[in-house]
Amino acid sequence: MSRTRLPFWRRMSPPRLLAVSFLGLIAVGTIGLGAVPAFYVGGVPLSWVDALFTATSAVCVTGLIVVDTATHFTRLGQGFLLLLIQLGGLGMITITTLIILTLGRRISLRVASVAAQMTGPVPEVELRILVRRIVVLTLGLEAVGALVLFGSFQGVFPMGEAAWHALFHAVSAFCNAGFSTFSDSLVGWTRSEPVLWTVMALVTLGGIGFLTIEEVGASFRRRKEKGGTRLSLHSRIVLAGSALLLVAGWVTYAAFEWGGVLAEMTGADKLQNALFMSVTARTAGFNTVAYADASPATNFLTILLMSVGGSPGSTAGGLKTTTFFLIGLLAWSRFRGRTHVSAWSRTVPEETVQRAVGVCVLAFGTISLAIFLYVAFGSVGGGTDPFLSLMFEAVSAFNTVGLSMGMTTGLDTASRILTSILMFVGRIGPLSFAAALAVKAQAATHSYHFAREDVSIG
Fold first, then answer.
1. How far is 107 from 103, CA to CA, in rounded Å?
2. CA–CA gap between residue 88 and residue 78 (Å, rounded)
3. pTM, entire model
4. What is the pLDDT of residue 46?
């Protein structure tokens, strides 16, 4: 009887709450962008399809655009986009953190049967503290980033305009959104160390995830008090994986484009922008070079990095660093003839490894279907390799990156709707799928099994 008296949002599973909250925010954004003339320089709102596309891109912190944010929107319209980005980023951090905590708890079958209500894994007091910490951390880091960017912009723009550019880019960077108030994104700032390094820092912190940032901070505090501590396996994989991908992408981008799109820069600027390319490919969406002019090898490397994305409980999309490295550890374990996956003297539960495999298969299938539909709709790719640009667009949308080889504005209506669906599914799909698998696995603990029969592989 008491269950029926709970508010509807407390009766929802975290994955369903995630989907409903994002759908509601996208709906509000679509109505606003499609009905308010004051948001636009010419006073003419976007078509409903373009409004849906832009609202989805903002709420899902992707960054793909069909109109130029800098010239098409008034300050009021840009502010509305920024609000959607902020709410989308904060919502993702908060709800995904709660889902991760849900998956990490040993919950009973009875709790699993109601799909881990929001108050199930986290007591109400702890939930309020958790949400407050997330909001304070997010706004605090964005404020610091905005102050640093303001110092660089104020020498170029009037004070009010510089403050707006700084605030917009700080929020967009931490939320890994990739929206910019400059028509060429950050191409005009390729030689500005404060701007590029501030954006890279915000993108990296936003993509690491709240749980890891909290744990690292707590680790430093405990180290001062007790003289030693140990990070969880989750945080170790996140930090090690992020660092490895960052360095590998940096070196490879520099090698591929030293005489290409980076050719006109000095040696120091080449290294700096190659590092920026490695950071932004992991779902940030800002660019300092034109990817349509980059080599096929560079763009395929970008596709791979976009597919990995950031880390769980962050604003970033993608398969996530933990999923990617669990798949790698699984392959390494099988190669060595081991039946379990382990790292840093810890064994990863089999159900977690299976969730990682499931998410990877789901993502691969979704992107493959999207590419097929782009071709079926007659979408024309850009750059020197049209098919590679279609793959680039699909991967960028699904992993909520926002980079493009220049084909977004040329998408027809059907392809724009498909891209909007990709951004939404990519934002909530893999995590919800993993959570659903976890609940099903717990609910099926005592289920029966059929007779065993092997199948040949390879």
1. 9
2. 15
3. 0.85
4. 93
**In 105-176, alpha helices (H):** 109-113, 124-153, 159-174
Q: How many other C-beta atoms are found inside a 10 Å radius of the C-beta of residue 183?
A: 12
Q: Which helix (H) or strand (E) holds 347?
A: strand 346-348
Which pLDDT score, from 0 to 100, does residue 124 have? 39
pLDDT digits 0-9 by tens, 262-285: 999 999 999 999 999 999 998 888
Q: How many CB atoms lie within 10 A of CB 148?
A: 18
Give which of 12, 38, 194, 34 is closest to 116, Cα–Cα.
12
Q: Give the Cα separation of 115 and 446 in Å (integer).
A: 17
194: nearest Cα among 232, 152, 228, 156: 152
Please give, one letter per residue, the 3-state secondary structure of 241-276: HHHHHHHHHHHHHHHHHCCCCCCCCCHHHHHHHHHH
Confidence band (pLDDT; 50, 70, 90) for 2? very low
Q: Which of 170, 163, 147, 22 is nearest to 82 (CA)?
A: 170
Residue range 12-42, pLDDT digits in tens: 666 677 777 888 899 999 999 999 999 999 8
